[in-house]
Automatic annotation (TrEMBL):
<dbReference type="GO" id="GO:0006046">
    <property type="term" value="P:N-acetylglucosamine catabolic process"/>
</dbReference>
<dbReference type="GO" id="GO:0042802">
    <property type="term" value="F:identical protein binding"/>
</dbReference>
<feature type="domain" description="Glucosamine/galactosamine-6-phosphate isomerase">
    <location>
        <begin position="24"/>
        <end position="224"/>
    </location>
</feature>
<dbReference type="InterPro" id="IPR004547">
    <property type="entry name" value="Glucosamine6P_isomerase"/>
</dbReference>
<keyword id="KW-0119">Carbohydrate metabolism</keyword>
<comment type="function">
    <text>Catalyzes the reversible isomerization-deamination of glucosamine 6-phosphate (GlcN6P) to form fructose 6-phosphate (Fru6P) and ammonium ion.</text>
</comment>
<dbReference type="InterPro" id="IPR018321">
    <property type="entry name" value="Glucosamine6P_isomerase_CS"/>
</dbReference>
<feature type="active site" description="For ring-opening step">
    <location>
        <position position="143"/>
    </location>
</feature>
<dbReference type="GO" id="GO:0006043">
    <property type="term" value="P:glucosamine catabolic process"/>
</dbReference>
<dbReference type="InterPro" id="IPR037171">
    <property type="entry name" value="NagB/RpiA_transferase-like"/>
</dbReference>
<dbReference type="GO" id="GO:0019262">
    <property type="term" value="P:N-acetylneuraminate catabolic process"/>
</dbReference>
<feature type="active site" description="Proton acceptor; for enolization step">
    <location>
        <position position="67"/>
    </location>
</feature>
<dbReference type="InterPro" id="IPR006148">
    <property type="entry name" value="Glc/Gal-6P_isomerase"/>
</dbReference>
<dbReference type="GO" id="GO:0005975">
    <property type="term" value="P:carbohydrate metabolic process"/>
</dbReference>
<dbReference type="Pfam" id="PF01182">
    <property type="entry name" value="Glucosamine_iso"/>
</dbReference>
<keyword id="KW-0378">Hydrolase</keyword>
<feature type="active site" description="Proton acceptor; for ring-opening step">
    <location>
        <position position="138"/>
    </location>
</feature>
């Protein structure tokens, strides 16, 4: 695991965007795994600027998002469909058919999870998987558990995640209780992984992921077993790492 420590959010966003942009330039048909949350917003802005300046072309890029809340339709303002549209897709030239996000409003969630997993496998290997990090060490929506999830499935959100994500909803009761998330196995299957983290709230999780014991109780710790992981994090998020 290579850890790049930067000064602040802006530097993290810029550096992460450069790595993603390099992937798109090197391989215009690349398959990207994308993430939501506050952390990637800045790097998506950087990508949009590069696109507007004529430096990037997304017309042949395919994307798979990590997760979606169960019960929220694509038009819901807190859905990850909506997030991706507003923060990235409506500003760049991705083709609609190349964008993949699990449907949180599917009638049968396990069927949707299976369909999504098969769609990823059919399309090919995710070349660069972008990840944020939950305060409890989750990646995607793979919560701490007694075993690692292998494939895409429905996840029951922990109280700490509901708490952390409550800020986007009017009331705590409005936060969905479950989500569809691609599995840890699916994430580990990606060619390269780029994890971004910022702020002291992430410091404990960053330490456990980078230096802790590999355990499903800290889902991100499995990344220690992946051959090509880059972590880009600011000083606050890396404050607890051994110097
Ligand atoms: C959500 C998402 C994760 C994300 C995490 C951290 O739970 N499912 O993919 O990494 O939030 O979000 P933030 O970047 O807002 O701290």
């Amino acid at each position: 695991m290579e850890v790049k420590i930067v000064e602040n959010y802006q530097e993290m966003s810029r550096l992460a965007a450069i790595l993603l942009a390099a992937e798109v330039i090197e391989n215009p048909h690349t398959i990207l795994g994308l993430a939501t949350g506050s952390t990637p917003v800045g790097l998506y802005k950087e990508l949009i600027t590069m696109y507007q300046n004529g430096k990037l072309d997304f017309s042949d890029v395919k994307t798979f998002n990590l997760d979606e809340y169960v019960g929220l339709a694509a038009e819901h303002e807190q859905s990850y469909h909506y997030f991706m549209k507003k923060n990235l897709f409506e500003h760049i030239n991705m083709k609609e058919e190349n964008i993949h996000i699990p449907r949180g409003d599917a009638a049968d969630i396990s069927e949707e999870a299976l369909r999504y997993e098969q769609e990823i496998q059919k399309t090919g290997k995710i070349q660069l998987q972008l990840l944020g990090l939950g305060e409890n060490g989750h990646i995607g929506f793979n919560e701490p558990a007694d075993s690692f999830s292998v494939q895409t499935g429905e996840i029951v959100l922990t109280d700490s995640t509901i708490e952390a994500n409550q800020r986007f909803f009017e009331r705590r009761e409005d936060v969905p209780k479950t989500a569809i998330s691609i599995g840890i196995g699916t994430i580990m299957n990606a060619e390269k992984i780029l994890l971004v983290a910022c702020g002291e709230k992430k410091a404990k999780a960053v330490k456990s992921v980078v230096e802790g014991r590999v355990t499903p109780h800290v889902p991100g710790s499995i990344l220690q077993f992946h051959p090509h992981v880059t972590v880009i994090a600011d000083r606050a998020a890396t404050a607890l790492l051994k110097k």
